[in-house]
């Protein structure tokens, strides 16, 4: 087992990883930008190293600085967390070349799944259902219009190197094709340095269903059921829950088994998530996230499995401690992303937290890095806390979530907590009758 792990991330996920390391008696190294010196994971870690100025490009994305910190502290492994360099093939390769273990999949799988076209082709090969569309990146308008006519409108342009909803544009008719294509390419170039896009049929009322998998280097693969992430804005998730109200036990087993078989054939090692659109009883593969997910916590709550612990054990060359028959979904869990944003305009809200109180009680969990007096900086993602609730069933989970949100106090900045309170009073949310477009279509009426 590893003696010391460097956590190449910040915020709530850094604390989450640090806690499991402590329970496994593994020493930790926190890296941080100048402004993040006061973060709690920096204080809790055994060692800490400043890796650069406040901008992500100068710190959390600075590969040379992170590798230098690992060598300086004699860390034998690096956990990349979520975001930043967690799915960066170049970073993973350089970590390995420096004789340090990368706690994540092999670089070849990072590259494979990082290219959305290659990922789609690969999953089709291994029996995963996909949405009809172009099989390769496209740049010829005449060819684009021809394919669009074949797969039927509306169509969706997606960045080949995309993620987080960036580089995605919809064309409802032939007259919108050229404009949507150009906008998607421009956004893809700005966000990923690669303007290549592909096209697929745009589903009108799908759910966003994802399957959490864990695989070791001995060919063992398990899935931990599904998460429903359909409440989202601009392709950014706001609420996630497990299990989904729209899947039957038979469907859950079928898609889980399909995912397991594909991952086994792929030879993938580590944790990962297969993301699907689900409509009219059919699943359509979107992408695979080759890292820990922000919403991994709800899968932990319904299965009782520490996903980060399994991730570390696998990276250390150990076998999975569980088999598929050991995985049982117990009750219902929901996660509410508390972002430092205006709940009406969604503009970021940096500033000092004047008063803070986190809810508690049986089945209530808060993963966060903030504290009373903490100053939310303007340089990073707006996620400041995750409120996770677990109960015997969905109705009880909703009731517990309402109580927890009423108890939550974060004064001094705007947060999305008020939006969550409104959502939990809505009849569609209560009944579970929504799709990925629901929030944007109903936001004004909340």
Would you write up a description of this structure?
The chain has helices at residues 11-23, 40-44, 63-73, 89-97, 107-114, 116-125, 141-151, 177-192, 249-266, 296-303, 307-315, 394-407, 417-423, 427-431, 438-442, and strands at 4-7, 27-33, 47-52, 77-79, 101-102, 155-163, 166-171, 197-201, 207-215, 221-233, 236-242, 270-279, 282-289, 332-339, 351-352, 355-357, 364-368, 375-376, 383-391, 409-411. With 446 residues, it is an alpha+beta fold. It folds into 3 domains: 4-103, Rossmann fold (3-Layer(aba) Sandwich), CATH 3.40.50; 132-201, ATP-grasp fold, A domain (Dna Ligase, domain 1); 207-445, D-amino Acid Aminotransferase, Chain A, domain 1 (2-Layer Sandwich), CATH 3.30.470. Helix 4 (89-97) packs antiparallel against helix 5 (107-114). The radius of gyration is 21 Å and the shape is globular.
Shape descriptor: globular
So, CATH architecture of the largest domain?
2-Layer Sandwich
**Regarding quaternary structure, how should these chains be classified?**
single chain
- Class per helix and strand makeup: alpha+beta
User: Which strands sit side by side, in order, in the main sheet?
Assistant: 13-12-9-10-11-14-19-17
The overall average pLDDT, rounded, is 95
Gyration radius, in Å: 21 Å
| The named CATH superfamily of the largest domain | ATP-grasp fold, B domain
Number of domains: 3
What share of the residues does DSSP label as strand, in percent?
25-35%
> What is the β-strand count?
20
